[in-house]
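Task: encode each sequence below as structure tokens.

Item 1
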Amino acid sequence: MEEASEEAAGTQNVKVEEVEVQNKSDMTAAAVEGEDEEEEDVESFTHADVLDIFEEGLARLVQDPLLCDLPIQVTLEEINSQIALEYGQAMTVKVLKADGEIMPIVVVQDASVLDLKKAIRRFVELKQQREGGVTHISWRYIWRSYNLVFQGEKLEDDRLRLKDYGIRNRDEVTFMKRLRKK
């Protein structure tokens, strides 16, 4: 008799579990229908529309007094650099080219000469992209042909920090053609 009551209780438990599973599947179906209705309410945008909306927001962001020096087609790296400048975590090194152009290069406070060279490369490549200039520059040739010079001293050791050469915020570094040894 006990076996029969245990068997009946087991059958009841199975039926309760089946009902719970059925209820869960009904709720899931209702949720899916609700999502379909929500999807119909949401506007669909093309990729071009999303880019336009993003660029409009970015243009408003760049109008902020803190970021007003940045170009309209700003990159995340440029925004982060500008913010680091405002917080004193970075410095601007003015790099003077032979044609008289001054490039404001932003590097972190404890940057090495190699970091400065990489920042110059990023700056020039972004400028070329925006202006539609030369697409490829041989940086190996540039660094073989030119030195960076600060107050008459060549920045030859890429591992040394800029502070070791005495370079501080807003100091000027020049590109100077290397002289060939004969």
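Item 2
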Amino acid sequence: MRLAIDSTAELLNGVRMPRLGLGVWRSKEGAETENAVAAALAAGYRAIDTASLYENEESVGRAVRASGIPREQVFITTKVWNNEQGYDSTIEAFRRSLKRLGTDYADLYLVHWPVKGKYKDTYRALETLYEEGMVKAIGVSNFLIHHLEDLMGSCRIKPMVNQVEMHPLLTRKPLLEFCRREGIQLESWRPLMNGRLDVPLIQELAVQYGKTPAQILIRWQLQLGVVTIPKSVHAERIRENADVFDFKLTREDMDRIDGLNEERRFGADPDNVDF
């Protein structure tokens, strides 16, 4: 698999999704987010991941427009938050997101969490938006295998993406294999483990390859075929996170990283969505 800053993954419907993007969770609305997005686009990123919860969709939209890069060349993902879920309320939430983004379509729209009793109706709204041409691709976030099986038992359009917490301490191997079999693209949030990069093996590999621990983590995910969206608001770090295409982890080192799994979450448990 060729990997470069412009590498893409082909989704089930043929849409091409960049393999590396910028996440803007907890990036402040205004200059902080705008500067981060501007730095990412200048560094060659072509995917930005936001959500209604993040309250920075307006800044993302402004930065994309200010970049001068044609809209169709920037892959924008946003998500419907838990208190917006349900069929009609999701349609309304999506239109609010588009207005904040200042665009007439989204590239990818996701159900942010599997809210029990709501996520099927929410996803049905995504199917409607997709069929109306308002969004290029649809999917889910934080869905476990049983959530995906339940959803696929009734949906008309299979989810194209599943965005989940994934990193060497939470490798998600069964979920990754399930998604591969089903043709669902796995995407990782919190790929840098909340900045907890002091894992001895990761530090050892960083020295061995002449890279930073963050670059080792990003490269590991890319070689697994996972789309990844490391978050930073610092231009130098954003550029550094993209400097991962001039080396390749060996199979042995990939396996060693896999062996770090502790099933350790830094985020919430999808089976206990009470927010």
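Check on item 2: The CA atoms of residues 51 and 195 lie 21 Å apart. DSSP finds ten helices and ten strands in the chain.
End of task.
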